[in-house]
Amino acid sequence: MRGLVWVLCGMLAGPAAAAELRVQVSGIRSAEGQIGCALFAEARGFPGEGATVRRVVQADPKGVECRFEGLAPGSYAVAVLHDLNGNGRNDTNFLGLPTEDWGVSNNVRPTLRAPRFEEAAVEVKDGPAVVIGVTVGR
Hints:
The chain is mostly beta strands. It has helices at residues 2-13, 117-120; strands spanning 19-26, 34-40, 53-58, 64-71, 74-83, 102-104, 122-124, 130-135. The chain is 12% helix and 37% strand. Mean pLDDT is 89; it is low at 1-14.
């Protein structure tokens, strides 16, 4: 009997919610290289290392889209990089400033520090896809 109760509870819970986030990237200067989109589910590592999921698409000056499907509803932030040389990271100059175009969700661009997760976070809910735009630049 106890087993039957657990089975019924599992049936009532239904399948896990699956949310979708679409990131439309603009401001791409050339078709050279790739556009990398990194999705973060928490502040640790944002906007650099430790992404939950990554997508890579061929660069296109007309714009590209990165899709993240099957997400649990919640807050996410996205970091985007136009990786010109294909090394998978944002190259910097001797001052530590990026030499490749980049952007984050909510198009946050602080001048003297990296963007914070809280500033770039977007709420993703179950249902229709959440569509955001990110403009890359230096």
